[in-house]
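sanity check both lines:
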Amino acid sequence: MKKLLGPLVIIIVIIAIIAVVLFSSKNSFVDAEEDVNKAYAQVENQLQRRLDLIPNLVNTVKGFASHEKEVLSNIADARSKLAGATTPEDQAAANDQLSGALSRLLVVVENYPELKADANFRQLMDELAGTENRLSVARQDYNAVVSDYNKKVKRMPGSIVASIFGFDEKEYFKADAAAQDAPVVDFEGDGE
């Protein structure tokens, strides 16, 4: 009996050590995943702030440039796509589309000096610029946290723990491939 008790104690101690290491690693993954979720919530927060500002901006422009319906319609469509996007990849693509539509709006604004002088419009543009800056920082922070998390998921022994407990890589907030092309600005209005 004493001969069996010694190896049994050793086996129990080894199992206990493995269990402590395993659950400690799992908790570390849970913490890292929550950091990713928290950073992504900040991206979503800034995207929502942007979505909330855009109707006010569009309504201000409508008062001055009512015949620019296509540009305003494009902004509304892009805004709807961003509001309905659910994954970081979809949100990034919708965000790029909205950025392009807003760029075209700024070209339209150049044709209306009285709009550029309007205090309401200037305030909205300042708020939008501030939101764009906060959004950029939130995306950078999110991607940094995702990078740390993904390294943890891929590296040994973390990859073993990640596969046991179902922790998968997270998506980065990436710009759409079309965002690499500079928008064409045409002040002539003939499209060529």
The mean pLDDT is 84. Residues 75 and 102 are 7 Å apart (CA to CA). The chain is about 80% helix and 0% strand.
